[in-house]
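forwarding from the other thread:

> can someone predict this with nicotinamide-adenine-dinucleotide?

sure thing
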Amino acid sequence: MKNDAFASALSQLEQVQKLIKIDKNIFAQLQSPQRILEVSIPVKMDNGNIQVFTGYRSQFNDARGPFKGGIRFHPDVNISEVKALSAWMTWKTAVVGIPLGGGKGGVIVDPKKLSENELEKLSRGYIQAIFKFIGPNLDIPAPDMYTDPKIMGWMLDEYEKLAGFHIPGVITGKPLSIGGSNVRGYSTAQGAFYVLKEAVKKVGIRKDATVAIEGFGNAGAHLAQILQKNGFRIVALSDSKGMIVNYMGLDVEQVKKYKEKTGSVVGYPGAEKIKHSHIIAQEVDILIPSALENSITVDNVKTVKAKLIIEVANGPITPGADAILAKRNIMVVPDILANAGGVVVSYLEQVQNAYGYYWSEEKVLKKLEQIMKESFAYVWEQKMKHNTTVRMGAYVLAINRVSQAMVDRGRM
Ligand code: NAD
């Protein structure tokens, strides 16, 4: 298979097995999802022809609570990727100690090629196909790549029509008007900021540290704004079209406006466009990959100059590059901790849905901050105890928590 993401997820599990002794009966059960659905979704297209799309839902582990994870609409969706993402969701919910398991879904489709009408039919069709296998106490989907609050709104509506009653907690990342959270839009960035502050204290970086962020999308742009407001100097930003640099500091609000107008950060007048360099090679204190998988590899890792890397993207560092960074003593805060703010706020959204009682933005932020800070402290404790990297500290914490729940359920 071209992109065997699940093989990588299993190899991480083996690394943890070398560090701590996971019970062999538990380890055996963590080698595959508890359930995988493959569904066909027939959609009558605008031209009157039926097109059949393939969708998946992988429910990896529910020892700690209902399965939880997003739905991706992308042409490259494949079963290995969906399984891997569902495993990583299991570790992510465990690291931040929320009472949920891990799942993930996807549909093989290029949503940019669909009309709005076709996209709505596909979203509703996916819910019809998996209806019996989701629910607030069973499996709770959410947005992921190329799915958004509008799609979650259609999906919730379809679920409630089939169920025959209101049940907003079946899906998170909904529009605010139907039970969504007003923090969800920037929750991943905000969560990353809280762990970054903790990491900065450990590395000993000064408060006006310099930062480079790869990717200026939902997560990257919000984080750039939050960091600038808090006194950090954003010196390099990039998107799919290229990078801009200004060592005096970029004005993030102006860059955002420029990108909204032109479609890219490139060409922003208050910066240089540097052609023969890469964002990861910039002379900064903190590097934040916030775009794609596998952006730091064994081929380019030597150029990294930052003292601290915060993985806002999922899987931006290949295992080979990760080992080199560890040897060079460059601290990496791993994705399963750094970008967990999104799922934490999803969980808080679900709690509010269950109560039918909604909190202020300040209250949600306060809870998010507390969870992210505590999670960092628990991960750090494991890192020190096992004399290992922050990544392995996070994995040990997560897998110990999942294993304990499995033992307590007698699943061994
Ligand atoms: P997004 O689609 O909003 O933004 C992605 C950004 O990356 C865009 O600015 C795009 O131009 C840029 N990009 C694409 N190719 C690039 C390249 N080669 N070099 C530099 N930039 C490039 O996506 P997002 O929601 O911000 O997610 C970014 C990453 O964070 C993904 O890995 C995602 O899985 C992860 N993540 C996001 C969330 C969330 O809540 N948004 C939660 C958890 C994890």
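The chain is about 45% helix and 15% strand. thats all i got for now
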